[in-house]
Amino acid sequence: MDRLQFQSRSTYNAVMSAESDRPNAAQIDYWNGPAGDAWVSNQAEMDGTLAGLVEPLLDAADLAEGMRAVDVGCGCGATTLALRARLGDGGHATGVDVSAAMLAKSHERATADGLEIDFLESDASAHAFEPNSIDRIVSRFGVMFFDRPDEAFANLRRALKPDGKLVFFCWQARSENPWMTLPMAAILPILAPDATAPDPYAPGPFSLGERDHLRGVLQRAGFGEMSIDDFAYPMNITGSLDDAVAFYTQRGPVQSLFLEADADARMRVLAVLREILAPHHDGERVALEGNTYLVTAAP
Ligand SMILES: C[S@@+](CC[C@H](N)C(=O)[O-])C[C@H]1O[C@@H](n2cnc3c(N)ncnc32)[C@H](O)[C@@H]1O
Description:
The chain is of the alpha/beta class. The protein has helices spanning 25-31, 34-41, 43-50, 54-60, 78-87, 100-113, 149-159, 178-191, 211-220, 241-249, 252-260, 263-277, and strands spanning 11-14, 68-72, 92-97, 118-121, 134-140, 160-171, 226-232, 235-238, 285-288, 291-297. It has one domain (3-175, 203-236, 290-297): Vaccinia Virus protein VP39 (Rossmann fold). Helix 6 (100-113) links the parallel strand 3 and strand 4 (118-121). Helix 7 packs across helix 9 (211-220) and helix 8 (178-191) packs antiparallel against helix 12.
C-alpha cells in the first residue's frame, strides 16, 4: 500500500485523568521523565535493536485490511506505523501511551509519513475504550507496566470484539535475559549495594516473565484461548563498546540508578560496564542473550 495515499494527518490527543489518585502514577512519572526522553533521543537506535520483533508481532496478529487496531504502549511509534500500513484505506490505527514525549515523536513520524493514526496520551489500563469495538490490540513491550495487571488486561479485553485478539511481546523473567542481568549484577554493588532481590511481579520489563503468572493474569482478566510461545531475541546493541555502555547508562533501570550517583560512582560504573561488555563485543556490536514471550489471547 502506498503510504502517501492517506489524505489526513495523524492526530494527538491528551486524555490523561487528573493528577491525583491516578493508577500507575509511578510508571507514568517514569515514562515522562529521563526514561521517555532517552527513548526519544535514541529512537532510531532503539528501533534498530527491536526491529526484528515488529513483523512477527503483526504476523501473529493475523491482520486484515479494514480492521480497527490499537497499539498499547506505542512509545515512539515504530510498531504503530507498521500496523497502520497493514490495515489499508478502510482500517483504523490508534497508538496509546502515557509518555507525552514519546507520543509527540510518534505523531511527528506518522505526519512525516502521511499516515492517518490517532495517538492518545492515556493510561491503557483505565482508558475508556468503546466496548467490543477493536479487532486487534497489539503491543511490543508496552503491557508490563501496570500496577494492577488483572484489571488492566480486563480493560483491554472489554475493548475487543468477540472475535478480536490481543497479541503482544513481553520479556521472560530476568534469569532468562542476560542482556539485563549481566550489567545489573556488575553495577549494583557500586550503585545500590543494599539492594534486595526485586519483586518479580512489580511493574517493569520483567513483570510478566513467568509463564504461569502471565497465564493467571490473562485468565483472571477473562481471556479464554491463549498461547504463550517462547521467542528468543538476542539483544544486538550496534556500535562501539562506548555505545553499548551508553545504551545501559542512558536508559532503563541502570539509567535510573546512574542518574542518582555521584561522579566517582559514575566513573566506576562506566569502567565496570566496559569490562563486562567487552567480551561480548565483536567489533560492530554487543550481542547478549534475550528471551521473550509472544502471547496471543482471545476474549
Ligand atoms: C519499553 S517501552 C516500549 C515502547 C514501544 N512499544 C516500542 O516497542 O518501542 C514501554 C512503553 O509503554 C508505555 N506505557 C507504560 N505504562 C503504560 C500505560 N499504563 N498505558 C499506556 N502506555 C504505557 C511507556 O510510556 C512506553 O512508551
